[in-house]
């Protein structure tokens, strides 16, 4: 097993935003690395520390990783109402540049995007030559279905006709009563279609989604491959949003831990180029 070290870092984006992250490097120079992109209202650790666990698993296979807080999340200070999808894509590009600068032997980069972090991964992947593949976990691929005209009780509580109608006056909408989603982001949600970016993927892309997801409907992932042979969609029975079994919100049951292992296995396989496409 490889030895590894972990340290906090900061990065600057092209629009001059400072991002906080955690870089993991192994005892020897890494040719492969993973950049982890968390969901909305989460941070670089992801729910139940999923990204911390995955970073350690990757390091054990000699793969470096970077997990960081998107702007307006965690320790990356930024006005919540100014966050946009375009800004998140700039964050991803800054993370990629950081890995290139810090890993001189890097030749293979994998993007992991969870939930709201999936779209920035899909949009960025085709523009960065070192990104060889992508893993999208419980991805938000349809902003209208997930947010603007939601079908889940979680989203219906925030995205009501009244709160949406008030945006021109207030300039934002409150998600879960605390996160301010600005008018620019809400407009992007109307006009951007992440599922189209996945169907047009130019690198191998694995989509993993639970069929019992109570926050992001799995139906938006079922058709994500289209006719693209590079896209592999895997629907997991009984899994909720995240790796938890639908009856296990704390993620401690045998079924939940099996799901977590499956996600780790998939990520390691992609990172090491054993996905069958190389």
TrEMBL record:
GO terms for molecular function: carboxylic ester hydrolase activity. InterPro entries: AB_hydrolase_Est10 (IPR053145), AB_hydrolase_fold (IPR029058), Hydrolase_4 (IPR022742). Residues 31-154 form the Serine aminopeptidase S33 domain. This is Serine aminopeptidase S33 domain-containing protein.
């Amino acid at each position: 097993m490889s030895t590894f070290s972990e340290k906090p870092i900061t990065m600057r984006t092209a629009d001059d935003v400072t991002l906080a992250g955690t870089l993991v490097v192994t005892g020897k120079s890494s040719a492969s690395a993973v950049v982890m992109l968390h969901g909305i209202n989460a941070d670089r650790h992801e729910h139940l520390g999923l990204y911390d666990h995955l970073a350690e698993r990757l390091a054990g296979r000699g793969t470096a990783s970077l997990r960081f807080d998107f702007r307006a999340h965690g320790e990356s200070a930024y006005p919540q109402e100014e966050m946009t999808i375009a800004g998140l894509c700039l964050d991803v590009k800054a993370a990629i540049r950081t890995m290139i600068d810090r890993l001189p032997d890097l030749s293979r980069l994998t993007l992991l995007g969870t939930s709201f972090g999936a779209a920035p991964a899909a949009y960025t992947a085709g523009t960065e030559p070192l990104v060889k593949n992508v893993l999208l976990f419980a991805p938000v691929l349809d902003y209208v279905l997930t947010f603007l005209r939601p079908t889940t009780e979680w989203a219906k509580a925030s995205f009501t006709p009244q709160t949406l109608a008030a945006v021109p006056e207030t300039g934002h909408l409150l998600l879960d009563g605390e996160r301010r989603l600005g008018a620019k982001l809400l407009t992007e949600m109307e006009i951007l279609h992440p599922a189209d970016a996945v169907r047009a993927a130019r690198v191998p892309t694995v989509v993993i989604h639970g069929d019992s997801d109570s926050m992001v409907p799995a139906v938006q992932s079922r058709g994500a491959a289209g006719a693209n042979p590079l896209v592999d969609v895997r629907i997991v029975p009984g899994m909720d949003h995240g790796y938890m079994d639908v009856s296990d919100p704390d993620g401690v049951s045998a079924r939940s831990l099996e799901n977590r292992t499956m996600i780790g296995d998939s990520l390691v396989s992609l990172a090491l180029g054993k996905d069958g496409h190389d």
